[in-house]
């Protein structure tokens, strides 16, 4: 199948590709969403560790929250569905900063932005495309990487997404969390999250959260939770089994050829030359 045909399985809204699970109607109506001051948004480019952070937040004792389905998933009835939640809502999304509903910005809702090394993100997204019936199947890694670098993938360019959010890195209501730091120093990332949400968590509670949200626990639980509509936090599939692949840092090395690495690094260097996040992600 040609790259052009692959793209036709997706639709474009405001120049960005979306899967058919996000209707044009819901995307056009995002600004009619009435955010509450205590809403928390979990934002990321796809495959950056959204489910992991969602599970962490859900497991914080006495957080008093409800994890909802992504704001851009479904049709217009979505906004009515979101109104039904009486507890503090934690709402996942892969939207760019510009597309986020205006009331979220006006009310300065808390936002956790999760970011991951783009080479690992690209590999993870490649496998997600392969296994996910809601996304076009792109046969080779080389063809997928070309689309990824052009931003012709679902939710558009990784660079645009991250740079758009980075412009708001000093906003007090936005916390940046790195996938790699979560892997290396889980307790440190967890502390950042609980402090940001103003929730006290004891050391023993922290260890329980670490255990409940480990990759192996989450992967095993995905089988049981698969049909549970309360666990549809992914904007791209309701099949949780697709989400948990390897859960490691640096898997990209097994897929990038030396030439692909050079091309990627050159583009990264050019696009991220003024970016502090870019420097963190290179280390
Ligand atoms: P891989 O495909 O590299 O394994 P998202 O939730 O944004 O869709 O991101 C999915 C990626 O996060 C997948 O990466 C998945 O395995 C990884 N992931 C999910 N839960 C994790 C966990 N508890 N620990 C580490 N990685 C996790």
UniProtKB/TrEMBL annotation:
GO molecular function list: sulfotransferase activity
Protein family: Belongs to the sulfotransferase 1 family.
Gene Ontology cellular component terms for the protein in this record: cytoplasm
Name of the protein: Sulfotransferase
Start and end residues of each Sulfotransferase domain: 38-275
Keyword Nucleotide-binding: no
Listed EC numbers: 2.8.2.-
Compartments it resides in: Cytoplasm
Pfam families: Sulfotransfer_1
Gene coding for it: LOC103736728
Keywords, comma-separated and alphabetical: Cytoplasm, Transferase
PANTHER family: SULFOTRANSFERASE SULT
Phylogenetic classification of the source organism: Eukaryota, Metazoa, Chordata, Craniata, Vertebrata
InterPro entries the record matches: P-loop_NTPase, Sulfotransferase_dom
């Amino acid at each position: 199948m040609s790259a052009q045909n692959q793209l036709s399985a997706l639709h474009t809204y405001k120049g960005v590709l979306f899967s058919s699970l996000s209707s044009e109607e819901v995307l056009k109506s995002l600004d009619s969403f009435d955010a509450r001051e205590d809403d928390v948004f979990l934002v990321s480019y796809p495959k950056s560790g959204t489910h992991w952070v969602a599970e962490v937040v859900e497991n914080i004792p006495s957080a008093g929250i409800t994890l909802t389905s992504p704001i851009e998933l479904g049709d217009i009835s979505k906004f009515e569905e979101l109104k039904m939640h009486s507890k503090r809502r934690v709402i996942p999304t892969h939207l760019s900063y510009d597309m986020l509903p205006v009331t979220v910005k006006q009310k300065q809702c808390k936002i956790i932005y999760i970011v991951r090394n783009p080479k690992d993100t690209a590999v993870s997204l490649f496998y997600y495309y392969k296994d996910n019936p809601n996304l076009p199947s792109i046969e080779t890694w080389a063809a997928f990487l070309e689309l990824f670098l052009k931003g012709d993938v679902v939710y558009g360019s990784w660079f645009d997404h991250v740079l758009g959010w980075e412009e708001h890195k000093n906003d007090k209501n936005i916390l940046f969390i790195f996938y790699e730091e979560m892997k290396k120093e889980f307790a440190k990332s967890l502390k950042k999250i609980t402090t940001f949400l103003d929730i006290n968590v004891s050391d023993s509670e922290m260890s329980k959260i670490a255990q409940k949200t480990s990759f192996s626990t989450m992967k095993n639980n995905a089988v049981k939770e698969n049909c549970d509509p309360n666990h549809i936090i992914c904007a791209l599939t309701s099949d949780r089994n697709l989400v948990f692949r390897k859960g490691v840092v640096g898997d990209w090395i097994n897929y990038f050829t030396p030439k692909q690495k050079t091309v990627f690094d050159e583009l990264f260097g050019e696009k991220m030359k003024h970016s502090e996040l870019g420097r963190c992600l290179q280390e």
